[in-house]
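Worked example 4.2. Below are the chains of a multi-component assembly; read each line carefully before continuing.
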Amino acid sequence: MQFLTLLFTLPAVNALLGLLWPGHRRWLGPLQTIGSAVLFAVTVGLAHHIVTVGPISLWQGSIYVDALSGIILLIIGGVGTLAALYGAGYMIADLDANAPTTAPATSAESNRPPRRLRFYYLLFNLFVLTMLAMAISGNMGMFWMAIEGSTMFSAFLVGYYTKKAPLEAAWKYVILCTVGIAFALIGIVLTYYAVLKAQGNLAQGLNWLYLYKLAPKLDPHLIKVAFVFILVGFGTKAGLAPIHNWLPDAHSESPTPISAMLSCVLLNCALLGIIRYVLLTQLVIDPAFAQHLLLFFGLLSLGLAVPFILVQQNIKRLLAYSSMEHIGLILIGLGLGSPLAVLGGLFHMVNHAAIKALMFFGAGNLAQRFQSKQTTHIQGAFGIMPLTSTLLLLGVLALCGSPPFSVFLSEFYILQGGLANGHWIVSGLTLLFLIIIFGGFLHTYLGIVMGTAPAGHHDNPLPKGETNPAGLLAMGCSLVLLLAMTWWLPKDLNSLLHSATDFIVQGKGLGL
Amino acid sequence: MSPTPSPESMLPLLVDYIVAWVLICTILFLGAQRLKAKIQFYAMQSLGLSVLLGAIGLAHQNTKALILAVVAAIGKCIIIPLILRYVKRRVPMNKGVESYVAIPTTMLMGGGMIMAAHYLTNHLFYNQSHLFNEMLSTGMALVFIGMLVMMVRKKAFTQILGLYVVDNGIFCLTMATVFEMPMIIEMGILFELLLGVLVMGILVQRIHDSFQAVTLDELEQLKG
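Applying the procedure described above to all two chains together yields the following structure tokens:
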């Protein structure tokens, strides 16, 4: 309980601190980083509590924190800290570069955080808060509210630079996600209707735990229809294939720390809702129904990402399509349904969060120095930003699943789990897509790092050296994490992953 | 001699009238030439739905439903239209509705959707009560029509209205099927709607400031 209280007070304190900080603007970033790090420590403590004591269920299961939530909480805390650390070095420089040309402020005033920076930290922390609420809510309705709230708070972060492209991205993001969420609401109403028809306890009718217990009595047809609505609804927010249009725009136009938060955290949070509902459908009807839908959408996302990755010339859009690819991969892991594949899918969530944060941070550094996001302009980065370039190149290898990074392990688990279950076609297609994407990424990034800049684009040769030491530290942390998860996977995380897998595959831990 | 009708027996007739009111408002909403009129028809449609919830709540002596009806009426008929009108006034756009499809055609399409929704519910749920079918078909029709508005109208502003018609549709669907969700969830949904109209209103304003236009034709830079 005290963990949960802390979990919600910390981002609120951070938000207020960001809004009201009276001192020098240079200190705001580090302070926020410390705040986020404390939040991360709390999530680690909570994860340990879940492993040693067991799931927490409060208010008749309205708040339910189990292994699955634990994984998501760790991702929120971890990526939140990295993004705050990166933002400490990135936001002020980026704001100065993007500021509308106004009269220069007096020196005393210019040292205080500008309004836009305060606004940024306020929204950033509220965004984190809504995602934490998604992770711990044990009630479909509350989950819905949290997911809708996250859209509202992050909309201004996506459209943070009030220019044409970011505003367009923000508009698409809000409209598409809100419509999607409306569909999810229909799914929730239908689920509640099924509870009503089964004469269940209406007060608890939307609590996941209660739904799982009531599952044998629920009307299978209603649940089937509801699942489709839920999959489309939360799937919009998770960036599944035919309804992914907002994703590349939002990820590419928002400030880099927010791109990382959207890609690494928000998508996973939306997946959490889908996973919980999949478990319900598996308890009500034949598991094959949900699994086939997941496989279909997973393969579609993965397959559709391939051509866009191959031809993409905007470095952040490239990463956005890669997020779509990885979400597809996670869904395939979950859809294959064998314990190994599900474990791989969950592990891939964690790995993808770590690696995608690194990639976005690197891309943000390059974009800031080259003042462009076009890969045709960003060439020969090694001579200009050697550390960022090295980290990025290692990151590409990790992102595409080469050993010794832990992404390799999770992708291997998914494929192996599929093959062991006789899903030759799915595994074969997945492998094929992954290989093509590997080629595409390596080609683009080798150009970025080693290529020669086209003459005449930059009037003056770009200054050499790194701009964002805090950002480099954040990138280094992700890389170390990825290596650590290969050999020394933390015990708590390991048991979280395993008990979440048992939970999804067998409904274990529900007392069924 | 005729006995005084009980509230229970009056209900189906009342529901008939209210549903007719809601549908007429929806068609007029589609046909409205000006944004101001559109906002008014949205408010009237929401009023109809709130009264419906209140009436059923009254007939079944359900206090929760009554409270919810009052809150919904305040939120959807007063606050949201006020915010929308404020945004409309702040953003100096031309007041007409611009559409990819001619307005009479969309009205016809809307009518067709109402009929389709009616047909669908009568065939899918033929053994259900009259009230159930009526409200379910209205809800479905509103969802379809809201989607239609979001697709064919050119202005970002009209998309917000379309979205809120979809939401009214879901409100009606909820009434038809489960009648009411748990109180906290209903309140949460209303709160999100209010938050949504604020966020989208500010976005429309900002889009207007940087694009000098609020038609969606302009919002097509980001591709691929």
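Take a moment to check your reading of the output against the notes. The CA atoms of residues 151 and 159 of chain B lie 8 Å apart. Chain B has one domain: 7-211.
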